[in-house]
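anyone seen this seq b4? input:
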Amino acid sequence: MIRPDYAGGSIVNLMRSLADACGSVEPLPYLPLRAEKVGLPETAKHIVLLVIDGLGHRHLSRRGRGGALQRHLRAQLTSVFPSTTASAVTTYLSGLAPQQHALTGWHMHFSELDAVAAVLPLKPRGSGRFEAPDRLPQRLFGHRPFTARIARRSVMISPQSIARSPFNRYHAGPAQVLAYKTLAELFARIQEAVRQADAPSYIYAYYPDLDALAHEHGIASPQTDACLAALDAAFGRLLAALAGSNCLVLASADHGFIDSPPERQLDLAQLPQLADTLSRPLCGERRVVYCYVRDGQARRFEAAAGDCLDGRAEVFPAREFIEAGWFGPGRPDPRLASRIGDYVLLMREDWTLKDQLPGEKQHPQIGVHGGVSADEMLVPLIVADCRA
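predicted toks r here
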């Protein structure tokens, strides 16, 4: 079991160090990266951060040997808890730990809406849609974007499919938003942003394809191997193109992956005694599940979870995760407790748990994340100095 290392070895601390290097106008309430992890120079005119969705440290070490990414590997960091895109990418985009930004997984119960929603697309579970989705970020998010905290011109480079989504537009803040369709276009946009910037700049870029392929085919599949090879080659070409540009290029990830075979994938419909105690659909992730329990059913839930999930999951009162600092240090956002339910199911080994609502599409997944294994929690920090 790997806990987030918020004392100087997590992506939260990376963002504090980046804020310092970019000239923070609103200090982040965390420690910077420990010196033995990596020190970031404050003299680079341009700083690029590439977030590669799903690239775990262990996976890079196994499958990316000898490539440009692995050659520039400087440190191993932990993700946040849970180790999932909704929580970790929000950390990259806000500079805050989940303890403060309070986005706790793919599916979340928002008391403001009295609904369970997928937070990144801001769509309700099941069928239907929210009214005025463009206004939801102001209601649901209480944090400032990272780009509003630094004294640099900023650029956000995202896939065209999400570049101007409500979630992305909110977190872009004052940054210029650039969209891309292909891997080649992604790296062309990064080069363009560096070359066209007269003043010191911060460039954030996000690449989702490795994550999508790992979910569908598995993290050790030929499809993900091909994706990583193409990404690695493109990264090497980027560094060559930016040589002498007074630029510091960093790459990291939001989480890693494990594979969960079909026989380890539990469905709530097959656990009626557990399902009968719940007041809402499952929230969070398949590897870290938030359960909202009906009034007066806590003991029954605990007994049912013990019977149904023995050896497959650990059951915790949700408040313990906040009190123990799993979501981060410091005072929690007042909405955090309502967004993780009454109990947390921490799935063991390669077990997962899911449910399905009427009108909801099935999304079979081989590769999964969100849990606390080393493969899921540990991410690489890649640093390439292109200043000279």
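The longest strand covers residues 378-386. The CA atoms of residues 134 and 166 lie 5 Å apart. kinda curious what u guys think
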